[in-house]
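Here we describe the complex-level prediction in full. Unlike the single-chain runs in Section 2.1, the two entities below were treated as one system.
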Amino acid sequence: MLRAPSRGFGWIPHWSWWAGVAASFASFLALPAFVSEYALLQLSVIAVLSMLGVSEGFLWGFSGILSFGQTAFFGLGGYTYAVAALNSDHTALPLLGAIILPGLLAAIVGYFMIYGRIGEIYVSVITLVVTLILEKTMRATSSDEYVIGSVRLGGQNGIPTVPPLNVPFTADGTLGLTGVYFLSGICLLAIYVGLALALRHRWGRVLVAIRENERRAELLGYDSRIYKLWAFVVAGMIAGFAGALYGIWGNFVSPEMFSLGQSAQILIWVIVGGRTILAGPIVGCAVIQYLTAALGTAAVGQVTLVLGVILMLAVVLFREGVLPAAWSGVHRIQSRLRRAD
Amino acid sequence: MEQAIIVAYQAVYAIAFLILISLGLAVIFGMMRVINLAQGEFMMLGAYCCNLAVKHGMALWPSFALAALAVGAFGMLIERILIRFLYGRIIDTLLATWGLSIFIVGGTTIIMGPTTESIPAPFGTMTVGGYGVPTYTLFLIAFAVLALIVTYVLLRYTTAGLVARGTMQNPVMAAALGVPPEAVYMLTFGFGSALTGLAGAVIAPLSGVSPTMGGFFIAKMFITVIVGGQMALLGTLSASTIFGGISGTVDYLVNSVVGDICVLVVAIALLRFLPLGITGRFHRGV
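The structure predicted for the assembly as a whole is:
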């Protein structure tokens, strides 16, 4: 009799993992007391973009689907929130919509790709094309006829004046700079913990089994398609949510959110941080964001030039990701030193 | 009636345009199974070569040839320093060539500036079904057909084409027969790049030249070649006919955004039912 993995409470992580999560959370809560407002703004956007990175890392590293189109869901989430919040006084429902609508798009696109059982290379290209079409569509909406409710879509310029989040249970309180920092940090942590637990649970183990050997998993009676579709939808919803938070953070959304440059950046975070570790993309995102901010003041095109070089070198030299490669390099040196003793 | 004529003309033009821009990728992906995401940037480089040559007083036709040669040489260089490490790692190729694409866009922006430049189109305008269209579009249609035929004849009926196809099918056997597979890979990639550079130069008078122009074409190229499937040229021809027909008609009747969306939806639906592309069930060939 086959026993499914991890029935009971075996999936709950060791206490040291919780201690690590709690420690990073505590330092995160304490940080605003020590850094400037500008740094806080940067940290907020890193937290928001890290969600996007985690969604890609989860999808690619644990379910084996390489999506080139997480920006489709990211941008859609941002636009959904902006349009819905500007058309109503609420902000909670638009935020929910920014999760559901990208989730629906992911379900439709994912159904065609995953149930069609098309090869991984085609999945990459289709997700890429979906993003490009959405970007082109949004860029073409500059004339006055493209209006949803009372909101002009604005073409190239996007939608300025995306409203901040209302704080619940207060009359007119909205979330300020520090508020957005805390919100994005807490959401990132919640998503990370949620995904980490899901991956240790039965569902995640089946997902990893499918990644390792899809045919064997199917012969054992798991319908791989529904597991992969769910992974794709969950990643899409996370990306959509990140898009809404990005709109709230910057007070505007624009077609740039869909752009190829943006999707390349996500992949760079994941490749630098490593896709086999769930927290890898967070580190990768922080490193690359810091780098682009430092380069940002230089000439036009310099940032993309450097990012392109990083992507090429990382792919050719480090197949498992830069940080995991560095980690295993350190281990190898350690063990060699030990042997020398 | 006049409406029908102009719609038909637009559809034929869209088909020819797709064939022209996808041909290089069809050779590179269809024969070598290398997905080159920097393909749009190769086109952009071709357009810039042509633009520079024209600016320096060269006539338009030799500028096309120059663009093809320059981008072909550039492609061979890239094959040597990047692509050859990645054969058989198809996803890694995709990512690395994406890096290459960003790199080229960044480099071109630094050197040439982020502005759009234009080359004046020769021939003036003509009337089709009561509308004025650039006569150059007629030239482009003829050129696409010619390029397709020349590529087909090269791959199908010449010794070089035979050696290339043989090497792609079985590199070890080709090597045993005295053909250096490395050189064949390099030359095939160079040939595909040259076709792409040429396409970039030919469309430059219509589309304008800017560092980010590659991004506009990359999606169309890829869905055309992928939906085309196994057989590089026949697949590209049939997929171009379907998508060009749709986008040419819808572009004219509604607008180009709706046209793009229609193409995408049809492409995804086609791949759902023909996961290997239109020619996926055929035996190998060109």
